[in-house]
Each structure stands twice: as structure tokens, then as C-alpha cells.
Amino acid sequence: MTDKLFNQKDLIAYFIVAAIGASLQIVVSSLLQEWFQVSYENGVLIGYVTSFFIGFFLTKLLAFNAKNSAKTRREMAKFAMVSVISCLITVYGASGLYNLSISQIGSYEFTLPGSVKTVNTNKLFSHTFGMGLSFISNYILHKTFTFRNTGFYEKLKALLNL
After folding, report:
1. Ramachandran region of residue 120, left (φ > 0), alpha (ψ -120 to 50) or beta?
2. Per-residue pLDDT tens digits for 98-126
3. Partners of 111 in beta bridges
């Protein structure tokens, strides 16, 4: 089971897809916080939601060899359920660590060399940590649930048709 769950090809492909999503999350979150005075937690949340749509298609096409499946609607519903869990892990994991870091060690910022842009190290590290936790849970859940026929979608559909 371990060999199939953590095979190198899927893990590398998923890492690349996740890195694209993570980059998008950080850029969107940072811009919203800086330009529009959105709170840290809301910036992380909006960044996550923004990367959701790109993440689904890249994951389907590149990571788990599901590009030729005729089950896109089913996979999207399952992807959304996993993403809600992942979103909670990302947002509250990042927010919790950020608040803990501020209370324990204070705020640290640095200015990018040759620039006037300052980076809040606490926020960057906390956001990256939250995304790392999310990466682990996402990989396992997408590999074992989202892009696999588990019978769950049929049961959910039957339940909703009552």
C-alpha cells in the first residue's frame, strides 16, 4: 500500500502542481493584504480559493493520470470536499502559527535587496507551514479518494435525490 500511495512519479507531479498553487496563493494573499488592506487570515483564504480552480485542473491533468476519465463532475465534487478540509488546515494552521509566533518571538521583517518591499517573515513562514500541512493531507486524500472510484459519489448523489 505504501508503494502505491507514495510512488515517486505521482509525488513529483503533485509537488509541481502544488508549488504552482502555493505560489499563486502567496501572491494573491500578499497583494490583497498590501494593496487592499485585507486581513492576514482573509488574504490566506482568498488566495486558497483562487488557487482551487487552477489546482483541480492541473491535478487532474498532470498528477494522477485522470485526464482521460469521463468523471470530471464527480472528481470536482470530491475535490471540493477535500479542498474544504485543506482550506481549514491552511487558513487556521497558518493563522494559528502566525499568532503563536508573534506572541512568542515578536514580528520579524526584512527588506528585499535592491527594493523597498518589506516581507513579514512570520506571515511568510506561517503561510508556507499551513500550505505544507495542506499538501500532505491533499496528496493522500486526492490519491485515495478524489481520483479513485470509491462509491462515495453515487451514495451522495442518491442521498441528495431523496
Report:
1. beta
2. 999 999 999 999 998 998 889 999 999 99
3. 118
